[in-house]
Amino acid sequence: MSEREKKLLAYYEALNAHFGTKTWWRADSPFEVSIGAILTQNTAWTNVEKAIKNLKDQQCLNPKLMFELSEAELAELIKPAGFFRVKTKRIKNFLTFLKQESLLAKVDFSDTNLFYLNEYLHEELREKLLKISGIGNETADTVLLYALNQPAFVIDAYTARVFSRHALVESEINYLDLQTFFTDVLPLDTKLYSDYHALIVQVAKDYCLKTKPRCETCPLKSFLEHEPFI
Fold this sequence. Notes:
Blueprint: H1 3-19, H2 30-39, H3 45-57, H4 63-68, H5 71-77, H6 84-105, H7 122-130, H8 137-147, H9 157-165, H10 175-183, H11 190-206
């Protein structure tokens, strides 16, 4: 076991001991997770919940029914999530992708489990998702991990903040390099990736704040060998 793997697993154990197992994403279906992954771009999760509730109240949280909505109708429903016109187009692009893939797989377009996407190899599916306009690395990996139960380590601003403040990575490290920092040494384990990401989000929200971090009471304090780089 490399020193980096030991350290990253030690961070995980410390977070898990403090917070317990965290379920970052609760949803009724893989399709709901996927739509949530688009809606959460550049907004707080509480706003996403309002948009998801609107979609559920209108009973259109399945690919076929949502595809049949006009852009104006969909935009009105997801308005609480912000940037609703842009996100409407991104969701429509994703729905078009699902329609094409369901036709190829000869399955019902209204299926919300999206099981047919798992017929692709991981990297092939990731490339397909990234070709959808409006789907970037974080959104694609969120869909892979939380919707399709594939081992994709999700990187976000919280991850960069926590680990750069501990001087393990550069603050300006790019998405793929930071992802590789984890995946090069950690076991290829979907549950570990899911739990670890959820724990990073929690420690960043509770302790590793953007300004005035609460280092003295942070569960990762013992790993901090210097004043945090803020």
